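pasting input
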Amino acid sequence: GIQVEQSPPDLILQEGANSTLRCNFSDSVNNLQWFHQNPWGQLINLFYIPSGTKQNGRLSATTVATERYSLLYISSSQTTDSGVYFCAVLTNSGYALNFGKGTSLLVTP
Amino acid sequence: SQTIHQWPATLVQPVGSPLSLECTVEGTSNPNLYWYRQAAGRGLQLLFYSVGIGQISSEVPQNLSASRPQDRQFILSSKKLLLSDSGFYLCAWSVQGGRNSPLHFGNGTRLTVT
């Protein structure tokens, strides 16, 4: 099956800092999503982005499908950004999203 | 708008007891439905998915089963729980077809088997 690798696995930032999270995948995909799992376990949709660039407030994402990677940018980080960020992909032959192992982010005051 | 409900939020069950977790979706028809499990250590593992009533596909052979008795209802069950069934169970839905549309998750059920 498709391999989804996220980096870095853990990240500690001071409030106000910027960060870039990366997702590499091993096959062509027709669906890619970024999720934020908050400390209570809720998985929140951030972006549906199989290709191109999107922005939502302080967050933006870019997927370069031909090079099989996606990036999530967090600017001016806040303590509420803490949690685990997951990248998930679906190939043309798959039936459900395959998740990476996530990047655990801690934003300190 | 569409919403997904999952209950209970937390559950503590003894080894060998049965399990029933329920998930319902509102505001859409004939959704694709999914059960994922997140064990300690973050990764999400697909357990079951369904494209219609009575149609269940299993990704991982295990002690669990799923059923879809109604269009927008998805149930995860076990006849006898094992310690290894502990984890965080998440139900999700996407529009019919689903391949090129976002996946939306419920709030999850945290199951502890003692």
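fyi The interface with chain B takes residues 30-31, 33, 35, 40-43, 45, 48, 50, 84, 86, 88, 90, 92, 95-99, 101-102, 104 of chain A (CB under 8 Å).
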